[in-house]
Design a protein that fits this description.
By secondary structure, the protein is α+β, with helices and mostly antiparallel strands. Helices cover 23% and strands 38% of the residues. It has helices at 2-21, 45-56; strands at 64-69, 72-78, 81-95, 101-112, 115-120, 124-126, 129-130, 138-140.
Amino acid sequence: MRKIKTLCVLPAILLAAFSTTGSARPAGGLALPAGADFGAYPPDYQSLVRSWSEQNFSHPEMLRFGHVSRPRREWTLEHARKVYGWSVCAMISASNAYGMDIGPQTIWFLIHAGKVVDIRQTHTISPGHPVDCNDGKVRALG
């Protein structure tokens, strides 16, 4: 009888132990290692998005900012190496090199150590790792 109780309780104990030591998961559901260096939370993420956009779009004076998601821990691949940081999605309307309005675009930003270290305008960060901007906390950029 004692062996039966041990066999029934042991899987529950192991399951509880592994679930509490697991790592956080980003929106895409892929595991993040416990020791990953994401850098400090970027309280100035809106100004980082604005600065990057003003430096990288053809007509910064024509930029219109919509909403930006709050930062969350995320990673991307750079030369087959994981780079960790804080993920932010922003809706930005811009003009092309000819001054024509190209309409709103959702741009994914990865912020680490107070800098934008990667951006994507696609629906995937890396193969099997989708961009997810729906964090439920959307705020306007002023």
